[in-house]
Amino acid sequence: MDSNPEIPAEEPANLKFLRRLVTTLTATMIVGLVVMITLVVIRLNASTPQLALPDYITLPNGTRATAFTQTPSWYAIVTADDRILIFNRDSGELTQDIRVTSRP
């Protein structure tokens, strides 16, 4: 054992290398995590174009709407009697009437 406790013993070269490697990897992981969080925040805050809702929708008599979806060229209404009504966005006219049936 050393007789002088104030002077630390020299670290082996492998231990120095391992200590530097772990420190470098830790710093790299921290920087990578910060970059990923920043990119997610930027992506979530990016403005997406919002489609305007139609002013009014004329449904066939006796039809009750249960759901609505839209694209830039059409919008669709799902009805309580298991139909999907697809309307043209520009003219507002009914273009398709799709009946949804259940499989036995």
How would you portray this structure in words?
With 104 residues, the chain is of the alpha+beta class. It has two domains: 11-48; 49-104, no CATH class. 32% of the residues lie in helices and 23% in strands. It has one helix and four strands, in the order αββββ. The protein has a four-stranded antiparallel β-sheet with strand order 1-2-3-4, with no helix packed on it. β1 and β2 (74-79) form a beta hairpin. The longest helix has 33 residues, at 13-45. It is rod-shaped. The model has no long low-confidence stretch (mean pLDDT 88). The chain crosses the membrane at residues 20-42. Keywords: Membrane, Transmembrane, Transmembrane helix.
Number of strands: 4
Name the poorly predicted regions. Answer: none
Spatial order of the strands forming the largest sheet: 1-2-3-4
Mean pLDDT, nearest integer?
A: 88
Q: Please tell me how large the radius of gyration is.
A: 33 Å
Largest sheet: 4 strands, antiparallel
- Proportion of strand residues: 15-25%
Please work out how many helical segments DSSP would assign: 1
The backbone outline, from C-alpha atoms, is: rod-shaped
Structural class: alpha+beta
Question: What string, H for helix and E for strand, traces the elements in order?
Answer: HEEEE
Total domain units: 2
